[in-house]
Amino acid sequence: MLDVGREALLHCVGLGMGVTITTSADAVIGYPDVTFAEILDEPLPFSAFWSPRNDNPAFRRFLSAARIQSRAWKRREGADTGGMS
């Protein structure tokens, strides 16, 4: 985990220090030794946790949106397989 801004983070990726998920806006800028790959129409698993003493309204909204999207993906997968998921 690094406490850096987005640009520094992408430079760290270019140095081989890891990977990150970002928006397509960063791909337009381009960073040395960083390859961007699109993730389209694919579920992206993630985990999240936070301290109950740190109530963050933005994070609660993010988790709510993620739960809604997850349910939509599950419904679509069930429909694509004829309910055989």
Please describe what this structure looks like.
This protein folds into two domains: 1-38, no CATH class; 40-85, no CATH class. It has 85 residues and is an all-alpha fold. It has three helices and no strands. The model has no long low-confidence stretch (mean pLDDT 81).
Mind describing the biggest β-sheet?
none
Give the helix proportion (percent range): 40-55%
Radius of gyration: 17 Å
Any idea what the shape is? flat
Give me some keywords for this one.
85 residues; single chain; 2 domains; mainly alpha
Give me a quick take on this structure:
About 45% of the residues lie in helices and about 0% in strands. It is mostly helical. The longest helix has 24 residues.
What layout of secondary structure does this protein have?
Layout: H1 6-14, H2 24-29, H3 57-80
